[in-house]
C-alpha cells in the first residue's frame, strides 16, 4: 500500500514516515508542491496526506487541482490550522478527511484505514481488461469464456498491480517493492520472474509482456 506524504517539516515528515512504514505502508516524501506534482505525475498512490502551509504555495491549491483533474485518490489534510472554518474549506475543496496538529498517531492510522476501507467499497470488485477478469474480493482470475481460477496471495498482488497500471513498464525492483513492503531484504528479484511465469501459464504469454532490460507490463489490448 503506497501513499504520498506532503510535509515540509523535516523532523515531522521523517518521524511520520517511519510510523507509516511500521504500519505496513510504502511512503514517498515531498516537501513542496513542485515535488508532490512530480511524484503524482509518475506514481500511483492509494492515499495522500497533505499539509497546507508549504514553502511554494498552499496545499489547498494542489488539492483543488487534483480534483479538477478527476483524481479520486483519497486525501487526508494534516495541518496546524484547526478552526472549524479551515476544516469546512478543506473538505469542500475535496479532502476526504481533516486532522489537526498535534495529533495522536493511533488516530491518524485509524483514519487512514477508514479512508482505504471507504475507497475499496466504492471500487468495483471485478477488474476486466483485455479479456482477463480479476475478482478482487475472491482473489481469483478468469479468461473470457473460461472458469475462475484461484490465485495465491502473491500471484494476486502482482496481477492486481499490473492490471491497475496497464501498458506501463515496471522493473523487477518496482514490482518487488509492491509485493514485499515489509520484507524487501528477504525478497530476491528472481521471485518476480517466478510469479510472472505462473501467471503466464494461466493467462498466456501475450498478456504479461517483457520489455528486455526494462521490465514487465500488462498489455491492455
Characterization of this structure:
Keywords: DNA-binding, Phosphoprotein, Transcription, Transcription regulation, Two-component regulatory system. By secondary structure, this protein is an alpha/beta fold. Helices cover 43% and strands 22% of the residues. The protein contains 8 helices and 13 strands. The protein has helices at residues 10-22, 33-42, 59-68, 84-93, 105-122, 153-164, 172-179, 190-203; strands at residues 2-6, 26-30, 47-50, 53-54, 57-58, 75-79, 97-100, 126-129, 132-135, 140-143, 149-150, 208-211, 215-218. Strands 2-1-3-6-7 form a 5-stranded parallel sheet, sandwiched between helices. A 4-stranded antiparallel sheet has the order 8-9-10-11, covered by helices on one side. A hairpin with a 2-residue loop joins strand 8 (126-129) and strand 9 (132-135). The protein is elongated.
Going by CATH, the architecture of the largest domain would be 3-Layer(aba) Sandwich
CA(first)-CA(last) distance = 27 Å
- Total number of helices: 8
String of helices and strands = EHEHEEEHEHEHEEEEHHHEE
- What CATH first level of the largest domain would be assigned? Alpha Beta
Shape: elongated
Number of domains: 2
Output the structural class: alpha/beta
InterPro entries: CheY-like_superfamily, OmpR/PhoB-type_DNA-bd, Sig_transdc_resp-reg_C-effctor, Sig_transdc_resp-reg_receiver, WalR-like, WH-like_DNA-bd_sf
GO biological process, one term: regulation of DNA-templated transcription
Protein name: Response regulator transcription factor
GO molecular function, one term: phosphorelay response regulator activity
Amino acid at each position: 500500500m503506497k501513499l504520498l506524504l506532503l510535509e515540509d517539516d523535516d523532523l515531522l515528515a521523517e518521524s511520520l514516515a517511519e510510523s507509516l512504514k511500521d504500519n505496513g505502508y510504502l511512503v514517498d516524501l515531498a516537501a513542496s508542491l513542485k515535488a508532490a506534482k512530480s511524484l503524482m505525475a509518475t506514481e500511483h498512490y492509494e492515499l495522500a496526506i497533505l499539509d497546507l502551509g508549504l514553502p511554494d504555495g498552499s496545499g489547498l491549491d494542489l488539492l483543488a487541482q487534483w480534483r479538477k483533474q478527476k483524481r479520486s485518490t483519497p486525501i487526508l489534510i494534516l495541518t496546524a490550522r484547526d478552526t472549524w472554518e479551515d476544516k469546512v474549506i478543506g473538505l469542500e475543496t475535496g479532502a476526504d478527511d481533516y486532522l489537526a496538529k498535534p495529533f495522536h498517531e493511533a488516530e491518524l492510522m485509524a483514519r487512514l484505514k477508514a479512508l482505504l476501507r471507504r475507497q475499496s467499497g466504492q471500487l468495483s470488485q471485478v477488474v476486466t481488461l483485455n479479456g482477463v477478469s480479476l475478482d478482487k474480493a475472491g482473489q481469483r482470475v478468469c479468461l473470457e469464456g473460461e472458469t475462475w481460477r484461484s490465485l495465491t496471495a502473491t500471484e494476486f498482488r502482482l496481477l492486481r498491480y499490473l492490471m491497475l497500471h496497464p501498458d506501463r513498464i515496471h522493473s523487477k525492483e518496482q514490482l518487488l517493492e509492491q509485493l514485499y513492503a515489509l520484507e524487501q531484504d528477504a525478497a530476491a528479484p528472481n521471485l518476480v520472474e517466478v510469479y510472472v511465469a505462473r501467471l503466464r501459464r494461466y493467462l498466456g504469454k501475450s498478456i504479461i509482456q517483457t520489455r528486455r532490460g526494462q521490465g514487465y507490463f500488462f498489455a491492455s489490448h
